[in-house]
Amino acid sequence: MTHPTPYPDLNAVLRELVESVQAVLSNDFIAACLQGSFAVGDYDRHSDVDFIIAVEQELSSDQIIALQTVHERIYRLDCGWAQHLEGSYFPKDVLRSYSQRGKPLWYLDNGSHSLVQSEHDNTIVVRWVVREHGVALAGPSPATLVDPIPVGALRQEIVQSMNVWWQQIVADPESINNRFYQTFAVLHYCRLLHDLHTGFPGSKRAGAEWAKATLDSSWVRLIDRAWDGRPNPAVSVRQSADPQDLKNTLEFIPYIIKASASRCGPGDWQRATHRVTYRPASQFSNATGRFSAE
Question: What is the tally of structural domains in the chain?
Answer without folding.
Answer: 2
